[in-house]
Amino acid sequence: MRIAYLDCFSGISGDMFLGALLDAGLPPKLFEETVTALNIGAVLEISRVNRSGISATKVDVIVDGEKDSPRESRAGAPAPHEPAHGHEHHHGEGHHRDSHAHQHPHGRGLTEIREIVQHSKISDQAKATAIAIFEKLGAAESKIHNVPIEKIHFHEVGAVDALVDIVCAAVGADALRVNEFVCSPLNVGGGTVNCAHGTFPVPAPATVELLKGAPVYSSGPQAELVTPTGAAIVATLVKRFAELPAMKIEKTGYGAGSRDFPGHPNVLRITVGESTAEANAGEGARGTQVSQETISVIEANLDDLNPQVFGYVMDRLLEAGALDVFGTPIQMKKNRPGTLLTVLAQPEDADKLEHIVFAETTTIGVRSREEKRQVLARKWNIVSTRYGDVRIKIASLNGSVTNYAPEYEDCRRIAAEQRVPLKTVMQEAVQAYLRSEKR
Q: Cβ of 42: how many Cβ atoms within 10 Å?
C-alpha cells in the first residue's frame, strides 16, 4: 500500500502543502493547468527558497500582478468591508500569505464555490475533495458563529489565492496516487493571531474546530503555524495520525512557509513510499493473515426518497470517510417498496456520517451498531500497460494470493484520457499483473 506521510513539525497551510507536493515530484504544469481551468484570473509563481538551511519549494499566487504579503506587514488589520461573520483567517501571522488583498467584493458563499469547482476542468475525484475541504471549513465557521452553513461567506477562503490553494491541493492529492495519507502530531505554534473579530490565541477558532481528534502541540516560533486551510486539508485527506510508519521511501518533498524562522525550518515535509509493514504481512511465512477490526454499521429505511438523490447521498458519505455504502431493496409497512441504506464506517466517523444521513435523506430515524469484521492482508502493486500505470490491489491468505483487481479510478481516468473502453484498460492491467507474477 502506497502511503504519504505529512510531517507537520512546523504546521501546515495550503501553500506549504502545494510546495511539498511539487518538491516530491509532481509537475508544475499540473497546478498551472488547474489554475487556468479555474478561470479566476490567477497565475502561480513557483520558486526555490531556503528555510533555516533547508531547501524547499515555495508557491505563491499572483493576482493582477500582485503577490499576497504576510499578515504582519499590514498589522493584521481586517479588510474594511468584512462583515461580522463568515471570515476565514486563512494564513496566520507571519507564516503564510494572507488573502485579504484579493477579496471577492462581498465574499463567496458555499453554493458559489461549489459551482466554480464543479465547472472547472479537473477530475471528478479532485472536485469532490476540493468541495469536501470547503465544506469542512464552512461547518467549522458555521459552528463558531452559529450561522447556517449556506449563509457563511468565505471572505478570505473565498479569495482567489485560497481557491487556488484548495483546488490545487485536491488535484495534487489525486495525482499523488497514494492509498492513504498519514499525519504526524501537528505543531500549531503559539502567540496570537489577528482575525476580523479581534485578536485570538493560536490556534485560531476555526483551526481548533477542524483539528478535533487530531494530536497537537505548541513549540518553537510564536506564530500561527497551522492555518484553517491547512487544518481543513488534514481533516479531509488524513485518516490516521501516527509517527512515521514503516515504509520503503520512494520520494520526499519540502514545502516552504513565507517566513524563515531562525533555528526552525519553516517547512512541511511529505514522504511517499510503500508500507513495508503491510508488504511484510503479505509475504509472511504462515499464519492466517486475517486481521480483525471493529466497525460501525449505520442503517436507515427509506421509502420516500427521490432515487436521484440516493446516488448523491452515497457520494457524500464516501467523501466523508465511509468505508462502504450500499442500498438493499426492502418491503416496508403499507406494502411500500423501499431501500435499506447501509453505511460501514470507522467508529470515530459514525457521528458525522449519521448527521449526513439525517441532513441528506428523508429518514427520521437511524440505527447504528458495532460489528467485528475480518480483513485479509492486502497490498498494492503498480503495473505498466500501454495506456499508463495502474494500481492492482492484491489480497492474500496464508501466503497465497486469493484476489486481485485493478484500481477502478486509475482505469477510469486512463480510459477517459486515452479515449479507449474502460473494460480494455482493466483487461490490460490484469494481463500485465499476471505477466509480472510469472517472472
A: 18
